Each structure stands twice: as C-alpha cells, then as structure tokens.
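Lab notebook: predicted structure, single chain.

Context: the supervisor wants predicted structures on file for every construct in the current expression panel, including those that have not yet been purified. This is the next one on the list. No modifications to the sequence; it matches the entry in the shared construct table.
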Amino acid sequence: MSKRIIYFLTMVFSLSMLTFTACGDDDDDAVADDYVSQISGTYNGDLIIPDMISGKQDISIASSGTTNRAKISLSSLTIPTSETTSLVVTGIEIKSVPVSKTGDTYKIEKSTEKITIKINNLLEMEANVTVEGSVNNNKLDLKIDVKDIDIPDLAITFSGTKK
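Prediction complete. Output recorded below exactly as produced.
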C-alpha cells in the first residue's frame, strides 16, 4: 500500500511541477530595450543639400522588424535643376539601420545600403546610401549620403522634431 501512496504522491508532485510557470516582466524588458520603438515616428524639419535645396521635409523612422534596427524613409525629394525643371527622387529608404542608446541620446549608427531609387518615376538606378545621426528629446539630426548615381552625389543633412 505504501508503494501506491509513494507512486501517487510522485505523480501529484510531477504534475504540479509541470503546471508552475515563471511570471516575469521579460516582455516589458524587451519593449524597453527596443530603442527603435521609442523613437519611431515622423519628423518634420529642415533638409539641406548644399548648393541645391533647403526646405521643410518629413523623414520617417519605423521598426525594421528586428530589435534595435530601424527603417528610415525619405519618401520624395525634389531637386531643382533650373528655374523651370527639377528632378524628383523617390525610394530613399534604408531598411536596416542599427540604433543604440547612450544616456538620453539614441544613436543611429552609421550604416550603408545599396538601394534602388527612382528619378521622375521614369528612371531607376542603384545607389549606395549611408545614414548616420541621433535623436535626443524628440529632435532628429541626420546625415544621408547618396552616392554612385548618374546625378551628382547628394550630401543631405536634416534636423527636425517629431510630429
């Protein structure tokens, strides 16, 4: 009879151990450590390409789908070529930019990607795009270099605040 009781108690303890789970705040830590979610949004500010243009523009930061990697988009950029004509560059989107944090500053790590951009929605070309910058107190400062294209290289600077 004691074997049955020992067997029964062993089964009860075994089953009870399977039903215990750890309840922690692991999910909260994952969100807190995803720096991109803390800076995601649309930033409006001054975009400058020396000797070409300067004006207000929107740049978006979103999650790339990987923790601490951002997708940075400049949807459309109009570059005047004369008083009556201009080039419209679309498709400037860098899909996987590392983001880190030091103190209150989020650093957009220097990253280069080869992307396809469109000129006037007619011509597609490959370009090497490098981004680097920071976000502090909802203010984005960003450098974007677009190189290896058939038009002059673009050295873009942007400074704006989150909408």
